[in-house]
Each structure stands twice: as structure tokens, then as C-alpha cells.
Amino acid sequence: MTTLIVIQLILAIFLVILVLLQGSDNEGLGFGGGGSLGGMMSARGSANLLSRLTALTATLFMIMSVVLTIAASVGSDKNILDSLPSINNELESTSEPSIPEDN
Question: What is the number of structural domains in the chain?
């Protein structure tokens, strides 16, 4: 379980970094602006690579979230609805509101 949480944390950090590296309308924190890196890492090539890496990382993050949720619920036989306070008990225990007297 700890390994899954560490992987989730690494994916979250990597996803944030990838989002920050992407340029917004050719401005921002994106790299490869002048196309000086050539070929794969030109402005257009880096945008495609970053977009694909971001989509892949986001997909892995969502899959890991579901896996962690399932892994956490497998060992527990507790139902979340059983832990909620009963509405009937709350209504019976409260007294009628009192109207304050004029001062």
C-alpha cells in the first residue's frame, strides 16, 4: 500500500511539472521556444511530446487513484453510511428553539 502511495505522489509531482512546462499560447514556462533544439524538440515537437506525456501521466494518475481507492476499501468491512449519525436521533434530542423575550 505504501508503494502505491509513493507512486501516486511521484505521478502527481510529475503531472504538475509537465503542466507547468507547457506554454500557454506560445508564452509561459514552455521550453524550446525558438526551435533551436531542432527536430523532435522544436516548438511544435515539444508541444506534441509534452501534450502526450501530460495525457499519459494524467491517465496513470487517475488509474492509480482508482487502484488506491479499491485497495483501501478491500480490507475494510465498514460502510460509510453506517458511520453517519442518524437523523431521527438528532431530531429527538434537540429541543424546541426558544423565542427570546423583549429587552
Answer: 1
